[in-house]
Each structure stands twice: as structure tokens, then as C-alpha cells.
Amino acid sequence: MSRRIGVFPGSFDPVHNGHLDLIERARRLFDVFYIAVLFNDQKQALFSVEERIDLLRDLVGDSDDCRVESFSGLLVDYAREKGATAVIRGLRSGADFDYELPMTLMNRRLAPGIDTIFLLPAPEWIYLSSRLTKEVGSLEGDLTGIAPPLVIEALHRKHGWN
Ligand code: PNS
């Protein structure tokens, strides 16, 4: 039987508990699961791609069945190169759906053999986003229970607090 290969793409700037919840759910569905961090020099990010990858690797590991990599260019090209048949995206709300729909349909047009699978995080993470995590972190707010301690420490270091 052929191996089920999936890709979970994103900016992960930085990874938070909602992402980790989705990663746990999604990796069970695949024999090989790629967490793919977008390298995009047009997009202003707080953490470099290397920093984001290091955080993800420290948190979820980097093994033969769950790899953390960066990608640039078209997502479907990366997914094809990996032999993936599915892309995983998280859905928290109708606004997410509106954002995802055109990308999903474009990706399907570009690569009809690759489907997008949407997963819902656990309800306690539904309001989380990297943007809010960064904002609260930059204002010295308490991120306990929102992001793992490793990420909170990385945010503190970014802002020169330790
Ligand atoms: O975490 P994000 O920022 O919502 O992730 C967005 C991402 C990385 C999935 C999206 O920007 C993407 O796929 N970029 C790669 C470029 C691409 O394939 N563009 C065409 C999509 S229709």
C-alpha cells in the first residue's frame, strides 16, 4: 500500500498551542507528515525561518514520519515534490473559511491530485493566532497556556527581557 503523505504549511510566526493541537490531530492521519514553514522575504516576520523551524523541531521533533522543513514558491509544487496527496489547514471561523476558499480552489486547479483537508482545533484554541500571540508577547502580557514555555521564552528574548 502506498504511504499517506501530508503537508501542513504555514507561517508559524511563532507556533502556538492551536498549531500544536492541529499538528497532533493531523499527524495521526499520515504515514509521513511535513510541517512546512513558508519562506517569504516579502512578508515581514518576527522570527526568522530558521528560528521558527528550530522552535517547531524542539516542540514536535524532527523524525522520519514528521519532518519540519521550509519551503518557498508554490505550495503545490512543494507538496508534489514530497509526494503528498493532502494539505492540512486549520479552520477556526467563517473568516478563516473565506480566506482559505480561494487558495484551496486555486491549489486544486494547479494540482488536482492534492486535496486540502480542514481540521478544527480544540475549542480552547479557537481564538488563538500568531498575530495575537506576538502582540500580547510584545506588550509583556501573560502568554501562559497560549504558547509553550519555549515560545514564550523566545518572545521574551526577541524583546530583550532576558
Ligand atoms: O500561516 P499562513 O500565513 O496562513 O499560511 C499561508 C500559506 C503558507 C499556506 C500560503 O501563503 C501559501 O500557501 N503560500 C505559498 C505560495 C502559494 O502557493 N501561493 C498560491 C496559493 S493559492
Q: Overall pLDDT, averaged?
A: 96
CATH homologous superfamily heading:
HUPs
Distance between the termini: 51 Å
CATH topology: Rossmann fold
Number of strands: 5
How much strand?
15-25%
The main β sheet shows up as: 5 strands, parallel
Tell me the helix content: 40-55%
Q: What is the count of DSSP helices, taking H or I runs of 4+ residues?
A: 6
Give unreliable regions as ranges.
Answer: none
List keywords for this structure.
single chain; 162 residues; alpha/beta; Rossmann fold; 6 helices; 18% strand; globular; binds 4'-phosphopantetheine
Characterization of the model:
It is a single chain. Helix content is 41%, strand content 18%. It has 162 residues and is an alpha/beta fold. It has a single domain, classed as Rossmann fold (3-Layer(aba) Sandwich), CATH 3.40.50.620. Strands 3-2-1-4-5 form a 5-stranded parallel sheet, sandwiched between helices. Helix 1 links the parallel strand 1 and strand 2. The longest helix has 17 residues, at 94-110. The radius of gyration is 16 Å and the shape is globular. The N and C termini lie far apart (51 Å). The mean pLDDT is 96. Bound molecules: 4'-phosphopantetheine (PNS).
